[in-house]
Every structure is written in C-alpha cells, then in structure tokens.
Amino acid sequence: MRSSLAPGIWLLRAFSRDSWFRGFILLLTFLIYTCYHMSRKPISVVKSRLHQNCSELVRPINDTHSVNDTTWCNWAPFDQDNYKELLGAVDNAFLVAYAIGMFISGIFGERLPLRYYLTAGMLLSGLFTSLFGLGYFWNIHMLWYFVLIQICNGLVQTTGWPSVVTCVGNWFGKGKRGLIMGVWNSHTSVGNILGSLIAGVWVNEQWGLSFVVPGVITAAMGIFTFLFLIEYPEDVDCTPPQHHGGPGEDQDNPEDPGTDPCSGREGGLESTAKFPKEPRAKPVAINFLGALRIPGVIEFSLCLLFAKLVSYTFLYWLPLYIFNVAHFSAKEAGDLSTLFDVGGIIGGIMAGLISDYTNGRATTCCVMLTLAAPMMFLYNHIGQKGVTSSIVMLIVCGALVNGPYGLITTAVSADLGTHKSLKGNAKALSTVTAIIDGTGSLGAAVGPLLAGLISPTGWNNVFYMLIAADILACLFLCRLVYKEILAWKVSLSSSRGYKEI
Fold it and tell me: What is the radius of gyration, based on Cα positions, of the chain?
C-alpha cells in the first residue's frame, strides 16, 4: 500500500509554474537592491570613527604624536575642526552623482538588456565600495580620493533602481500593487540594517573592512544576477500581466482565465503561441518630455524631492547624531540607528496596504508626512532621554518618514509608468521611475549637505530644516489629494445610487 502524497508536495503543486517564476523574480530583485543599499550605509557608521574625541581613548605605546594632540586617533583629512563639512562633501559627492546619473540611467535602462545592465552596475558598485575601504589599508589621506570614489559609486549605483522596478513591473500587474511593492520595498531598510550591522563589526578596529565586505557581497550578487535574472515573463513562456496591453497580449480576444501557459496543461501550446518568447512588436521607448506629461509625475517627483531629503539626512547623519547627543559608542549608535529602518519596513507595508484599500496614493503619503513633522520634533526633544523612548520614537519616525518615500518610488512609479494615457506602452516605466527617483535624489543630495553645514550651529536647527522639508513635501500633493477626495465622493454617490435602485 502506497503512502499518500507528502503535504509539502501538495503545497508545491498548489502554485503554478507561472507563480513560482514570479515569486523567484520578486525575491531576486529584492536581494539585488538590498545589496545596493547595503553598500551605501557603511559611511554613516564609519563617520563617528573618522573623527572622534581622542582624549577618551588610551594612546598606543608607540604613539609619536604630541601629548596635547586631541586628534591623534582620527583619520586625516577628517581630523580638522571642519570635519562635518568634509564628511558632508563626501556624502554629497555620491548623492549629486547619483541624482545626475539617475536621469540618464532610466533612458539606458529602457534600451539595454536589464540582466547585463544590472550585472555591470553591481560589479562596478562592489568595486568602488571596496576601493573606499581599501583607502584604510593603503593609508590614503587625500580628500580627493574619497570624493572621486563616491562620485564613481554614485554613477554606477543608478543602474539599480530603474532596472529592478522595471523588471518587477514587467512581471506584476496592478492588482494589490501597493501591498506587494510595500513588502518588496523593505529591501531598502533591510539593506540599510545589514550595512549598519556589517559595518559595526569592524568600525572600531579595521574600518576599511566595513566597506570591503559589503562590496564583495554586492559584486557576488551581480554574478548571481547574470546567471538567473529573467527580464520578461515571455522569455520563459509565462503570462505577461494585464497592463502590458501591447506585446504578447490579444486585447480583442483575451485569453481564457483558466489557461496558464506555464502550467503545462492542455491548451498550453496554443497559449504559448499567443505569448511568444520574442514579442512581435515591441513598443517604442518614451522620451523625457513625454514622461513628464503623464498626469501626476511632476507632483510626485517634487514631493519625493523633499521626502527623500528627510530620509537620506537620517540615513547619513543619524548614527553621528546618536553618538554625539546620546553618547553611545560608534557601534552602539550604528546598531540603534537600524531601528529607524525597522520602522521604514513597517511604514512601507502600511502605506501600500492603506493606499490599495483606499485607492488614494497621494492622500496616504500626505497623511503620513503630516504626522511625521511633529514626531521628528518630539524625537529631537525627548527621544534621547532613555533607551525605551529612543527605540519607540526611532521606529515611529522611520515608519512615517520612509513609508511615503517607499510608496512613491515603488507603487506610484509603477502606476504612472503604466498609466492609461500611455495606451499600453509599458516602456515608459523605466524613464518614469528614473525621473521620479532622480528628482528625489536631488533632495537626497541636498539634505546631508545641509545637515553638515547646519549641525555646527546645533542639532535643533537640523531638525527644524527636516520639518520644513516635510511640510513642503505635503504641499506638492495638495492638488492630487483634492482629486482623490473628489473621486471618492463620486464613487460613494454612485454606490448609494446603485443601492437605491
């Protein structure tokens, strides 16, 4: 007598081949962008090691510095009194290059195979991240070296975001997009957390390894991407999502919902014929001005400029703020700062879920940004008075700051990149994503630079700057929020009328 089929196999068979491929692509792109963000985070942790209070440390026996020298333990050229401005310049070198490169990257992303584009980007990103850390082992003390490496790294990292969003957009339609991308977008926070934890292991000893290890991991992930990334569902005979509209989808005679080209069931050959590996007529890539004409692109881009300014100021300066204000060690400050990213994961999922349920992307962002302003004020004034209050406030602030930022860069970008005004031309997705995130990256470049310039006058002024930016982000969404409220009223009136009939 044979035993019944194993429960695990029943579970495997419950999902079609199509579903397994979609899940794999979602996981792979998640890991890809986790590595991108992981390689950006170490600089924020290492800052507190490049310049610190040397009088609190025990001098080595073979030290040749003057007894009155209070900068003997610092890493030149960051041992000067203007170290905050110098560290801000290093941050800004990466962020300005990233912002400029992003506008160009989306255009290339639509015209080059994503697998090759992402592979090259990850290998180069891993190289430049490692080169920054090798400055420690090669005993390099020239500011231009660290600035040049950051510029190069900023440019090559622009290969990541438009490519992964486009790849996910190729595989997934609009159903529950906010929730799916809210969960998926947690790669940003997961990457920040991993980057902080990895950097924290070596920050107090050989800080160069805080960069070399993430760099090697990123490059290895690039090789994995080359081996396994699938750009289009049609490449493996899977069903493209509904929003494609053009290639591989017969609008006049839509496929029977019960037929799955990936399932191997009867009729699969006919379905495969309808979805060939090479689409018969690929849509033409949209130009820059054409993407700007899509309703909502400009408003969400300007909103993201200020939202990302706030998020990246926390990303680059939070560990140093905790180190200076709460007087934790460099490793403890780095570890504690990861709670902001934990809140970001929660906020991203909440924003996606709420915006799917209400069908109000702009309203969801506006409400969260409105709540973020007073929470940042409270964190600055009471957040450092105890470990418990610090933990709670960091998680709440992370959720309210990163939730809208994550929603705009994922679900909103994908919605606009497949907007009905494009009439099925999904080739706009990479360009729209690059425009929105590129504009946001301008804010990301300005935020840390302003923090470096303002922080010598007091951390309170930095938080006032962040609150002002948060309010401006809300203002740019007012028109879209008004339109969503009107749409809700029309929908509510229609449903009431239908019930009366």
Answer: 24
Are 244 and 171 in contact by the 8 Å Cβ rule? The answer is no
The percentage of the chain sitting over the pLDDT mark of 70, rounded to a whole number, equals 80
| Structural domains for the chain | 17-43+82-241+284-494 (1.20.1250.20)
The C-alpha atoms of residue 400 and residue 318 are separated, in whole angstroms, by: 16
For residue 394, what are its two tokens?
């960091």
Closest by CA to 199, choosing from 207, 188, 189, is 207
pTM metric for this prediction: 0.72
Q: What's the rounded Cα separation, in Å, for the pair 445 and 306?
A: 11
401 Cβ neighbours under 8 A, 6+ residues apart: 307, 310, 311, 314, 340, 344, 347, 372, 376, 470
Tokens of 227: 């081996």
Is 163 within 8 Å of 109 (Cβ atoms)? yes
Neighbours of 50 (CB within 10 A): 23
C-alpha to C-alpha distance for 215 and 334, rounded to whole angstroms? 19
Q: For the segment 65-90, what is each residue's pLDDT rounded down to a tens digit? A: 555 556 667 888 888 888 878 888 88
CA gap 169, 163 in Å, rounded: 10
